[in-house]
Design a protein that fits this description.
This protein is α/β, with parallel strands linked by helices and 310 residues long. Helices cover 49% and strands 11% of the residues. The protein has a seven-stranded mixed sheet with strand order 2-1-3-4-5-6-7. The termini are far apart.
């Protein structure tokens, strides 16, 4: 399909009518941000009570209608549904004739590029993948946090400028991701952000068990500094008993975790092994100290007797 005749977004004097299919935490926030840029939200689909409340909070006075009606009313449609739901939704909308030629169809999945929208493309839609790299709360604070937020952008070459323009209008920073790199891109983000939440939550639970009254206040400066150092220096920022080769300390950690939080032992050992490998590769962990440490991590038990004095 040719898009040569489609006007640039900047040339649309009436701006765009915006619809949202899926009022989870992401869609209403993006639509509210587009409203600030001069576009006009006109319809949203929402199923659960929670999604209806989010829609009312972030998009007051915007009617809640079925997905097909959202597409009928909007020039720009945000498909903000779970990853596993997206392909079936797109196929279903295209089969029912809900997609209109020239309609901008935007999904926000990190996993998929623009090809997941091929059924809608064949129906004449203009496909864009705009993934905001942000954790959403479902509250108005998300709209403010979009300022400076990176978006993973994938689209046909002829729509690249339109996609980037929409991101900029939402206050974001477009980052082009090739179609074939979307799964790797998304895995990297999940590894860093989603697993970080799990690690921090586990750490706070353990600190409470150790008698710390305000683990969030204790962890805040430590984690903030660690994150800043890691972003600035990468592996050179590694510290702690694994990077130092303190096998006895790591063994003591494992013993305590087995007593108080056995469900966290596997994660601790896996992360410690990954840390040891990176510390060795970057010359932070001395090879002569690595043997006992790797032995502890391999067995998850205390040091042998001949290593206890080390």
């Amino acid at each position: 399909m040719s898009t040569d005749q489609q006007p640039d977004l900047k040339d649309r004097p009436a701006r765009l009518t915006v619809g949202v299919v899926g009022a989870g935490r992401v869609g209403p926030a993006l639509a509210a941000s587009l409203r600030l840029a001069g576009h006009r939200p006109v319809a949203v689909s929402a199923v659960s009570d929670a999604s209806r409340r989010r829609a009312e909070l972030l998009l007051p006075d915007v009617p809640v209608v079925p997905p097909a009606d959202v597409l009928e009313r909007a020039d720009l449609v945000l498909l903000t549904v779970p990853d596993d739901t997206l392909p079936g939704l797109v196929t279903g909308l295209a089969k029912t004739g809900a997609v209109r030629p020239g309609q901008l169809l935007v999904h926000t999945s990190g996993r998929y590029g623009a090809r997941v929208l091929d059924p809608a493309l064949r129906a004449g839609a203009l496909p864009l993948a705009l993934h905001p790299v942000l954790t959403f709360t479902g509250t108005p604070v998300d709209v403010q946090r979009l300022a400076g937020c990176s978006f993973g952008v994938t689209a046909p070459d002829e729509l690249r400028l339109a996609a980037e323009a929409l991101v900029i209008e939402m206050g974001g920073e477009p980052e082009w991701i090739a179609e074939e790199n979307r799964p790797l891109y998304h895995a990297a983000l999940a590894l860093g952000a989603n697993h970080l939440v799990t690690l921090v939550a586990q750490s706070m639970e353990l600190l409470r068990a150790a008698g710390v009254a305000a683990p969030d206040r204790m962890l805040g400066p430590l984690l903030g500094a660690a994150l800043d150092n890691a972003l600035r220096s990468g592996d050179a920022a590694l510290t702690g008993p694994v990077a130092r080769g303190d096998a006895g300390t790591v063994a003591a950690h494992v013993t305590e975790l087995r007593k108080h939080a056995p469900q966290s032992v596997a994660g601790y050992l896996a992360m410690a092994r990954a840390t040891a490998d990176r510390a060795l590769a970057h010359g932070l962990l001395k090879p002569e100290l690595a043997e006992d440490l790797l032995g502890v991590l391999a067995t998850g038990t205390d040091l042998p007797e001949n290593g206890e004095d080390r």
